[in-house]
Amino acid sequence: MIRYRFVLTMLCAVLLLNGCALVKLREDVQFSKDSCLLFGEVISPAPLKNPVIVVAYAQQGDKVQIGDYALLDEPGPYELLVRQGRYRLFAFADANGNRSYDPGEWAGHYGKPAEISPQPGGVEWGLDVKISAEPDGRAPSLAGALLEYSGGRNKQPTSAGAIADLDDPTFSTEQGEKGFWAPWDSFKVTGCNLYFLEPYDPKKIPVLLVHGAAGSPQDWRYFIKTLDRSRYQPWIFYYPSGARLKTVALFLRKKLYDLEQRHRFDRLFVLAHSMGGLVSRSALLEPDLHNRAVKLFVSLSTPWGGEQLAKTGVDNSPAVIPSWKDMEPGSDFIRNLFAKKLPESMRYYLFFGHRGGGSLFRQNNDNTVTLESMLDPRAQADALKVTGFNEDHLGILNSAEVIAQYRALAETTESNLKKNLAAGSGYVEIRHRFLPADTKVPLQMALVLVPAKEGEPERQLKVNPFAARQETGAVPPGDYEASLCALGFKTDPANHPFSIQAGKIAEVEFTLRPQGMVAGVITVTAAGDDSYWGYLMSLPDQVKVRAIGLSGAGIERSLKPADGMSEREMLKTFLASQDYASRDGFAFFDLPAGEYTLSIDAEGYEPYRTRVQVQPGDFVPPAPFRLRK
Hints:
Elements: H1 5-15, H2 19-34, E1 35-43, E2 52-60, E3 63-72, E4 77-83, E5 88-93, E6 107-109, E7 122-124, E8 129-130, H3 145-149, H4 173-181, H5 183-190, E9 193-196, E10 205-210, H6 221-226, E11 232-238, H7 245-263, E12 268-273, H8 275-284, E13 294-300, H9 308-316, H10 322-327, H11 332-337, E14 347-353, H12 371-374, H13 377-382, E15 385-389, H14 400-419, E16 426-434, E17 445-451, E18 459-463, E19 469-475, E20 478-485, E21 489-492, E22 496-500, E23 505-514, E24 516-524, E25 537-538, E26 545-552, E27 555-559, H15 567-575, E28 580-581, E29 585-591, E30 594-602, E31 608-614, E32 625-627
Parallel strand pairs: 1-7, 1-8, 10-11, 10-12, 12-13, 13-14, 14-15, 16-23, 24-32
Antiparallel strand pairs: 1-4, 2-3, 2-5, 5-6, 9-11, 16-19, 17-18, 17-20, 20-22, 21-23, 24-25, 24-29, 26-27, 26-30, 28-29, 30-31
């Protein structure tokens, strides 16, 4: 029965939706359009190993209403999904594990506290919360509220790299199917996370497994059972497969970034099934540091050309599963997958199954995906080799022949890595101070290394802002310009030229002074059918932004987006605290405290005006500025 799970799910969704299933899907879609993703990080100035809970809540008299909450293994990045409303964000170290804040536990609010009003159908980030041992007199009463919110079930930790048990019901086939039919509802239970099955081991190569539509981590049981665990460690990306694929790919990038910052892994293999191949390619196209670690990418039965059944669902179903819109042949998501080539450092292999059938109503397929879609010429062009197997869509996950072929590819790739291993790395000792000395310390800082050699990718290393002296690395030998980036601060020097030698420690020193700044990303308002949590409509290529203006506190400035400004030029301009505007991003620096009017003038869109508050040394990335047609 499991062999036909996906195709039956798709056909039933298109042809047989009725009754409770239709009502549930409609509710889920409406909730999706009314909701917003919140990203931030829980910061602890001292090491803390207790589990941490982050809560978005609304206070109505003595009653606390929970918008969402997340459980973390320890202080670190978090994400919440809340419906439209007004919330406060509160985090605490749950030392006794009772899912409620108790006096004496480390805790803190976002802001003083600050109330947030998330925009529906989008993303907000930079919502960092500092926790400390100081009593929080405004802590909400959470006795029983979190368990009641989650229906009496304890949530899975959503820290990237949380240890998972494949036998947990959260990872079951049934829950994976719910993630397709009701992605918003599923996200509230399972989140969207990258899990480990064992503690991280730097001596083993991680193998990232990405399931397909209506799938779950348990789809990979056979592969995990046959994996040589003395050489490889399985990582599993678990996501609600009915969500917009652009949002899911954003999560995968974010989770890999978090893990790279923590473990500095330099080797990663990726194996993706069905729709998981689309998600993986979307996430791996960007020149992120963790993507440079991906040495092997293998896709299994991926519908590279899209799925006609998804288009049928979009056109005819009374309620549309969000991911169908991305799975349509010719969708923006599919086109963007092939707008860039995969990195040259990544070996890509295309596996497909051909045991299935065909009829007057359905082209030759593997019982689910058509051969035409799996063998899209654009995907074949990137593949070192295309290999077919006498397996159907789900049988390919349990095939001894497929596993043997994969094992051979992994061993060959591993052997080549050993031959090409770099001759060593160096390290960086960072010293920094704030002026004036009593300046409030920012919660986030990063050391940005720009290689002197053109074409070499930049590197970003997280820095503890509370440690005046620290060492970080490892960094490949070479010549660099180093900049210390803390939003709301100006750094002296803006860049520090230096060289890194193998086995040596290079030293850099910076002084930071508070400065006022306004910066953001320009997007456009999505049509009603495209308004989903975590989904942003990028500024169309043909839209021209004429000017971005800022006025207030005795300041009058205007920026015109520069044509042909490279990403490296934008980065260096930003790090030097110089005003700039690109096609869809901008920044104003060195502003005095006060209230300002920000204006955006773009062809074909209503003039955009909003008020912004500026406080030197205290900058929070705003929600994307949405232009209305």
